[in-house]
């Protein structure tokens, strides 16, 4: 039983990890960022490449991936999304295009493969990232074997959630972000630099995606297409939790992760996934705005 | 098939130039002294990483044959098409090759999905497909020459060996959720029961699924003493990683796989697979001068000194030679002539002697078992003394004395 709960907890933490950045970009800024999964993918490749070329281990790859994805997110905001605020369907299309471009950049090794140059760690193939051995040996608590790497993911997710909460609810920047979430025009009228704050918020959310990417790379396959499936999970959580609610995102990922884990053990993974989708459909029928939501924009 | 002026001139020229191949007048082939073949694999998309190596091996074989004087004095001209990892595209490209280019032979397809998608084209247009992948069997087309392993060639040695040599009696069967792993599981169950073992579970995960937490903990809780894995593609990597992360070791509960090849091992990091087993007719580790030379030639052909070779890729290579021998024996390259001549063709492939079965057009191959080491290479620890007869319907009771698929076609009353 404890083991089942642990698997559920681990699934929850991975969902939360992906959804955290998304809940900020989608929740706070009303941008359906289809490229979020690709930012996760870029984070994963940052982990792989830093392992190959800089000999960095996973712990150092985390901040590096945060920086890379955040800068990419900043560029994305400046170049594309800034021009599309308030046009939610257009952001969906535009970021989808960006997602395809990012995927192809990795697959074509930034275009170098046209010239016959192969960069180790890029290209269409499968990659993997080395995990330091102290994170792969399982340990036991009260006779229950616990996986170190999954515990590590849970820990990092917890820390990132606390950090996000702190930034959003305990700093002046956070107050500004929340003001923009409620009503950008009034926020601007109150003297908040909406553009600047939005850009930083988007960069932060993108950076979180990068961190998620590195952690996923430790136990999933790294490949150019990996983002597409992760972004679906992220949107599920954000939609169920309620747009713009940190608490909702946390609770929704906990719930969906546990449902997935418990049913995967009781029946099988395929059915568990179907049940999760069923629950999501039921919830959005019952509460179209998600479990926790407030009126905004 | 309309004969326009151009193709009339072409075939006329071909006729004049090569009297040895009179039936070229039937309308395929390009310029004089050339015979066109199709090469249809995914050059782009998710499957391209594997399929590109199959296309490369095919082209390498064609280049070698051309360098040695071609087929009946004709140069082979490959028409390379891209299936783009999409069965629908495979179907379109196969139609293009069969109808517009009128090539009598196509070397191609990797997944069963793509083969099923092109099959109607080849049957309707009476063209030949040479298919190099190990697959689930249950097919008896007279327009396909199957040069990869069928379930009995991967399992008939593997399961008895697991029971006797490894002493594993309780088997957990796990696979990706589609036709190949499900058919493999069917055959496995028959063999496990015949050999006095039991299967404790038969579980599936979605294709491409990478969350193995629940499944591996089920494996742990099941009390099995070995895992038979029919998991394919990128899921393999997360499976082996999770297996190790949950504290299981291949010493106690080995993963015995039917799909995990050199490619997946290289991608997951060799230490995660070290100690596990795979059954295939071909491994890069086969220690023979023929194979060593094959690996070297392949590496210089693709210009990558660390390129890996694997089973489907080796089949892609030797099937071109089988085709060449059939064309030479028949004296012409028409599909009917190839079909008549291909049965019984024998070739010394890098994995040893291979023979095309005249009845079901599948290939006699030698099953081998390898244990993976820390360096990502297998050590061959068991091999059949001789090639094993292919039985595509073994899951449905086919035996060497009672073949379902014969020259006359499939005897469906036996199913």
TrEMBL record, chain A:
Matches recorded under InterPro entries: ABC_transp_permease (IPR001851), ABC_UrtB_bac (IPR017779), BCAA_transport_permease (IPR052157)
Keyword Transmembrane helix: yes
GO cellular component: plasma membrane
Residues spanning the membrane: 51-76, 88-106, 149-168, 202-223, 235-258, 270-287
Location (main, coarse): membrane
Membrane-topology annotation of the record: Multi-pass membrane protein
Keyword Transmembrane helix: yes
Keywords: Amino-acid transport, Cell membrane, Membrane, Transmembrane, Transmembrane helix, Transport
A Gene Ontology biological process term: amino acid transport
GO molecular function: transmembrane transporter activity
Localization, UniProt: Cell membrane
UniProt cross-references to NCBIfam families, sorted A to Z: urea_trans_UrtB
Entry's family note: Belongs to the binding-protein-dependent transport system permease family. LivHM subfamily.
Entry protein name: Amino acid/amide ABC transporter membrane protein 1 (HAAT family)
Automatic annotation (TrEMBL), chain B:
Domain of life, source organism: Bacteria
Keywords recorded for this protein, A-Z: Signal
InterPro entries per record: AmiC_PBP1, Peripla_BP_I, TAT_signal
SUPFAM superfamilies hit by this protein: Periplasmic binding protein-like I (SSF53822)
One protein family per Pfam: Peripla_BP_5
Signal peptide range: 1-31
Key word Signal present: yes
MF term (GO), any: amide binding
PANTHER family named among the record's database cross-references: ALIPHATIC AMIDASE EXPRESSION-REGULATING PROTEIN, PTHR47628
Protein name, per record: Amino acid/amide ABC transporter substrate-binding protein (HAAT family)
């Amino acid at each position: 039983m404890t083991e089942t709960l642990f698997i559920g907890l681990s699934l929850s933490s991975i969902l939360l990890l992906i959804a955290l950045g998304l809940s900020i970009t989608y929740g706070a800024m009303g941008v359906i960022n289809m490229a979020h999964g690709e930012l996760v993918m870029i984070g994963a490749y940052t982990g792989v490449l830093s392992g190959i070329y800089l000999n960095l281990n996973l712990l150092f790859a985390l901040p590096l991936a945060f920086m890379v994805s955040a800068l990419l997110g900043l560029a994305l905001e400046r170049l594309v999304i800034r021009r599309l605020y308030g046009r939610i369907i257009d952001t969906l299309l535009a970021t989808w295009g960006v997602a395809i471009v990012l995927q192809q950049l990795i697959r074509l090794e930034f275009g170098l493969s046209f010239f016959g140059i192969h960069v180790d760690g890029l290209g269409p193939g499968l990659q993997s990232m080395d995990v330091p051995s102290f994170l792969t040996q399982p340990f036991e608590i009260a006779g229950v074997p616990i996986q170190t790497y999954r515990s590590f993911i849970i820990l990092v997710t917890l820390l990132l959630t606390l950090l996000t909460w702190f930034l959003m609810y305990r700093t002046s920047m956070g107050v500004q972000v929340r003001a923009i979430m409620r009503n950008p025009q009034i926020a601007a009228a109150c003297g908040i630099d909406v553009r600047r704050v939005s850009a930083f918020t988007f960069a932060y959310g993108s950076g979180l995606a990068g961190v998620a990417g590195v952690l996923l790379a430790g136990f999933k396959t790294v490949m150019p297409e990996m983002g597409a499936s992760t972004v679906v999970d992220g949107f599920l959580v954000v939609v169920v939790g309620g747009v713009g609610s940190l608490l909702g995102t946390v609770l929704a990922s906990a719930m969906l992760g546990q449902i997935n884990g418990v049913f995967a053990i009781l029946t099988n993974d395929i059915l568990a996934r179907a049940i999760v989708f069923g629950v999501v459909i039921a919830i959005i029928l019952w509460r179209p705005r998600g479990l926790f939501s407030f009126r905004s924009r | 098939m309309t004969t326009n002026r151009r193709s009339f001139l072409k075939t006329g020229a071909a006729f004049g130039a090569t009297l040895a191949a009179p039936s070229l007048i039937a309308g395929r082939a390009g310029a004089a002294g050339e015979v066109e073949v199709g090469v249809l694999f995914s050059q782009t998309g998710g499957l391209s990483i594997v399929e590109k190596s199959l296309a490369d091996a095919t082209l390498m074989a064609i280049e070698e044959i051309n360098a040695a004087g071609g087929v009946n004095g004709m140069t082979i001209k490959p028409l390379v098409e891209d299936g783009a990892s999409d069965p629908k595209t495979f179907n379109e490209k196969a139609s293009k090759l069969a109808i517009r280019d009128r090539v009598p032979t196509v070397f191609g397809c990797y997944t069963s999905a793509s083969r099923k998608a092109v099959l109607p084209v080849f049957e309707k247009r009476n063209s030949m497909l040479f298919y190099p992948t190990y697959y689930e069997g249950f097919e008896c087309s007279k327009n396909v020459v199957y040069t990869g392993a069928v379930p009995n060639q991967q399992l008939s040695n593997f399961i008895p060996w697991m029971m006797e040599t490894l002493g594993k009696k309780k088997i957990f069967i796990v696979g990706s959720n589609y036709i190949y792993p499900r058919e493999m599981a069917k055959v496995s169950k028959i063999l496990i029961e015949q050999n006095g073992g039991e299967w404790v579970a038969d579980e599936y995960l979605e294709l491409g699924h990478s969350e193995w937490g629940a499944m591996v903990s089920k494996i742990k809780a099941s009390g099995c003493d070995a895992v038979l894995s029919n998991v394919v593609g990128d899921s393999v990597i997360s499976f082996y990683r999770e297996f190790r992360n949950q504290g299981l070791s291949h010493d106690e509960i080995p993963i015995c796989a039917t799909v995990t090849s050199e490619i997946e091992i290289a991608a997951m990091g060799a230490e995660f697979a070290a100690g596990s087993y795979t059954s295939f007719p071909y491994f890069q580790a086969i220690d023979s001068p023929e194979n060593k030379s094959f690996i070297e030639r392949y590496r210089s052909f693709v210009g990558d000194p660390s390129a890996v070779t694997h089973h489907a890729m080796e089949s892609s290579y030797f099937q071109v030679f089988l085709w060449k021998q059939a064309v030479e024996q028949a004296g012409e390259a028409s599909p009917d002539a190839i079909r008549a001549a291909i049965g019984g063709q024998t070739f010394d492939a890098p994995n040893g002697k291979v023979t095309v079965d005249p009845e079901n057009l599948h290939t006699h191959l030698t099953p081998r078992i390898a244990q993976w080491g820390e360096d990502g290479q297998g050590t061959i620890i068991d091999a059949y003394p001789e090639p094993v007869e292919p039985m595509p319907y073994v899951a449905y009771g086919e035996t060497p004395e009672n073949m379902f698929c014969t020259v006359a076609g499939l005897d469906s009353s036996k199913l």
